[in-house]
Amino acid sequence: MMPLVSIGPLRLGSYGLLVLCALMVWWSWSERRLKRTDIVLHDWHFIAIIATTWLAGRLGAVLVQSPTWAGFVAQMIQLRTIEFHGWAAVAGGLLASIAVAQRTQIAWRQLWEAFALPTLAAHALVSVGAFLAGNGAGVLWDGPWAVSMLGALRHPVQLYEALILGVGVAWLWAWERQRPELTAWGAVLLWSTMVLLTAGFRADAWLLPGGIVATQLVALVVVSIAVERVMIQQSRLR
Amino acid sequence: MNTYRLHPLTLAVFVLGLVWVIVTRQAQPVTPTVSADEILPEVTLRALTNEPISTSTLRGRPAMLTLWASWCPPCVAEMPLLAEMQPWLAERGIEFVAINQGESPTTIAEYLQAHGYSFAVWSDTHAQMGSVVRSNDLPTTVFVDANGVVRLVYRGPVTAELIRVMADVLTTDATGVRS
Q1: Residue A175 lies in a domain
Q2: Is this prediction's pTM over 0.90?
Q3: What is the pLDDT averaged over residues B145-150?
Q4: Number of domains in chain A
Q5: Optimal mutation site among B82, B103, B144, B159, interface A, most CBs of chain A within 10 A
Q6: Looking at the domain assignment, is residue A73 inside a domain?
Q7: Distance of CA A180 to the CA centre of its chain
């Protein structure tokens, strides 16, 4: 089976197309949300954030996989694989957004309020793409909704991620009309809750002694901080 | 002195979250696993004739092992390049084996026949190799040197450039002398 789309050396299958789709959704929705607050970002700012997220995600993927500098260079310059390291991509996107906020003198919180929901919606689309391509598969499981992936029945963990994020984004978006001030921390709460609920089902999880999933512990701390912040905001509004 | 009190809901969420983390903890893998710069453990797979075949038979020569499946589009897209590079690798003394993950020997044989591929293919019905090299992605390519040391576990379709670079790495010993 050939890739669905070929652009020069870039060959896109279902995963690549959904990543592209996620980027377009993120860009257009963020731009529209920014315009509502009279903030205008130059196209180059969006491109810089996307490029940094992409490169950081690739860098993370390659550094995890490659033990040799020779292999590292060859992997970084080739365009046929677009596998990303999620946490590295998030870190890259955050750093680039902070840099844009500082350069444009826009309050970081305002920028995050505009980016939060589109970012989570984009993540949901990438998760669907990962499911279609078999990336980031779940742990072995033979329950009623197990899927056959990589030669075994597994938890469809990418669909859990997409479902939680999809429903959560729709709920936050509807709620935003009544309580716009809750979007920023609400989005952090949604993302960290998704990681807390799903990371235990990922086959590529980083395990601590006793089989505890490290990312779940990080997510638990973030969830607790986000709940506390939302509660403080709620009590101030009363 | 004022003491900060967490909201009761925050505490409840933290406790529930902690319970969830413990409930969903994962069993430690029972298969031996390997990272880059470690020796590839002995794994018994099957040839397409159904005879058992061990990864230890590769010891003494460098090898490129590709984990693949016929239902996996990036694996299928990668196959023509692998078929093209196989004679080039053989000239340099590098063994190339495509290790199928999870399919029956009949399915594999039909696929190879339909596409005219003649390189060595082993069957890994229980997808053990993915667990051993800690990769849940297909395709995954494992570059192993003559001493059985894993030099690179590459997730995703390889390129000719990467194969050439890794062939140099595999055929050059620690002192920089090419074999």
Answers
A1: yes
A2: no
A3: 90
A4: 1
A5: B159
A6: no
A7: 22
Residue A78 lies in a domain: no
Q: What distance in Å separates the CA atoms of residue A200 and residue B13, rounded to the nearest whole number?
A: 17
pLDDT in tens, B116-142: 998 999 998 877 888 888 787 788 999
Cα distance between residue A100 and residue A102, in whole Å: 5
**Tens digits of residue pLDDT in A81-132:** 566 778 888 899 989 999 999 988 888 888 899 999 999 999 999 999 888 8
B103 to chain A: which residues are within 8 Å by CB?
151
Of B20, B152, B166, nearest to A196 by CB-CB distance is: B20
Which helix (H) or strand (E) element contains residue A90? helix A86-104
Cβ-Cβ contacts under 8 Å, B178 against chain A: none
Q: Is B99 helix (H, G, I), strand (E, B) or coil?
A: strand
What sections of chain B are H helices per DSSP?
8-23, 73-91, 105-115, 128-132, 160-171
Scan for tokens 């509807």, then name that residue: A174
**Residue A10 pLDDT level (bands cut at 50, 70, 90):** low
Among A176, A134, A99, smallest CA distance to B138 is for A134
Q: Encoding tokens for residue B34?
A: 């390997």
Is residue A54 situated within a structural domain? no
CA distance A163 to A194: 9
Tokens matching residue B161: 């450039």
Domain of residue A188, residue span = 5-39+106-237
Task: Compute the distance between CA of residue B151 and CA of residue A71 in angstroms, rounded to an integer.
Answer: 9
Return the residue in A75, A82, A155, A238 with the most chain B beta carbons within 10 A, the one to mutate for interface testing: A75
Amino acid at A139: V
Helix (H) or strand (E) holding B153: strand B150-155
Cβ neighbors of A155 (< 8 A, separation 6 or more) are A138, A139, A141, A143, A146, A201
Q: In this complex, do B137 and A135 lie within 8 Å of one another by their Cβ atoms? A: yes
Residue A170 token pair: 């729709």
Q: What is the ipTM of this complex?
A: 0.83
**A-chain residues within 8 Å CB-CB of B26?**
139, 200, 205, 207, 211, 213
Distance CA A236, CA B106 (A): 67
Contact across the interface for A133 and B74, Cβ inside 8 Å:
yes
Q: What is the pLDDT of residues B5-29, one digit of tens each?
A: 888 999 999 999 999 999 999 876 6
In 3D, which of B76, B72, B77 has the Cα closest to residue B102?
B72
Phi and psi at residue B60, in whole multiples of 5°?
A: 100, -10
